[in-house]
Design a protein that fits this description.
Blueprint: H1 3-15, H2 18-25, H3 29-43, E1 48-50, E2 55-57, H4 59-86, E3 90-96, H5 99-116, E4 119-125, H6 130-139, E5 144-148, E6 156-163, E7 165-170, E8 190-193, H7 201-213, E9 218-222, H8 226-234, E10 240-243, E11 254-258, E12 266-272, H9 279-290
Parallel strand pairs: 3-4, 3-5, 8-9
Antiparallel strand pairs: 1-2, 5-12, 6-12, 7-10, 7-11
């Protein structure tokens, strides 16, 4: 039994007329009659009682109606699902991100994708910082990733935020009441940083700022995410350099102060491979392009 036979059976069963059924299927009547006879031979039963004036379902034909309609419905579902997947309207898209900037961007993107393409699921991988995200995108392990610019020219990027670096201090810190913080004034302070293995651009920027100020930061703790990092700062275990989107993270005992040194902004971007074979990933990029970004 094949799909063509099922469709032919349903057309005749619903029309109870071979001529009208043939018109509905856009075929000639003789091939339709042959298809029905072939199906009857395969099943070993008569599905229709035929006379020169009428066509009616036999008991066997009536019994076949319900399963035949189920098969037809499943066929339509198969067509819809496969076409949607080919068009990128369904599927799973893996996105790596780390730091507060990633949380801020993905909050809006998740809502926008759910509205535009409810069949696309975003598989979010937190604590995936810039350097690691680039490697995972290149290997095809994830589809998209939040990274700090610049990255290699082999990846496509779209800037999603421009971050300013700030100093995060314990509220009881001697400089907590100052309007501006000079990096050289933190020379004696312990620092809390993101792990070096994650390829965090904020960590790199912290060392660059310290070098510019002529100091060497003393790292006493490492934290895998903004919440952990700020909790350590709030506990008085060290100071940190963070991006301005981190200020949206509410942690008791932490104050943020601008840095008076020359601090270049960090450009945060979504990155992906242009040759990514996942159509849904390109749909997500299209949604991102339509968002109100800086």
């Amino acid at each position: 039994m094949d799909i063509r036979q099922i469709q032919a059976f349903l057309a005749v069963a619903e029309e109870l007329h071979f001529g009208r059924a043939a018109e509905r299927l856009h075929i000639a009547q003789p091939p339709l009659s042959q298809t029905i006879r072939s199906l009857e031979r395969e099943l070993g039963v008569e599905l229709f009682a035929r006379t020169t004036r009428s066509v009616r379902l036999t008991a066997a034909g009536s019994a076949l109606m319900a399963p035949a309609r189920i098969i037809e419905t499943q066929l339509k579902v198969c067509r819809t699902v496969t076409r949607a997947a080919a068009l990128g309207e369904t599927g799973v898209v893996g996105i790596g991100f780390g730091g507060a900037g990633g949380y801020a961007v993905l909050s809006g993107l998740t809502n926008a994708v759910a509205e535009a393409y409810p069949g696309i699921a975003l598989e979010l991988r937190p604590q995936t910082y810039s350097g690691q995200a680039v490697e995972l995108i290149r290997s095809g392990t994830i589809d998209l990733g939040i990274v700090s610019l610049p990255v290699g020219g082999d990846l496509e990027t779209l800037t999603v935020r421009r971050e300013t670096l700030l100093a995060a201090l314990p509220v009881q810190h001697r400089l907590a009441g100052e309007e501006l913080i000079a990096m050289r004034d933190l020379a004696a302070d312990p620092f809390v940083m993101y792990p070096s293995a994650h390829g965090s651009r904020v960590r790199e920027a912290t060392f660059a700022l310290c070098a510019q100020a002529g100091i060497t930061p003393r790292t006493v703790h490492e934290a895998p995410d903004p919440y952990s990092l700020l909790a350590l700062v709030g506990a008085g275990l060290g100071v940190a350099v963070v991006v301005d989107s981190t200020t949206h993270v509410r942690v008791d005992g932490v104050v943020y102060r601008p840095i008076e040194d020359e601090v270049p902004p960090l450009e945060i971007a979504m990155a992906w491979r242009a040759d990514n074979p996942n159509p849904a990933a390109h749909r997500v990029v299209a949604v991102l392009r339509d968002m109100d970004l800086p």
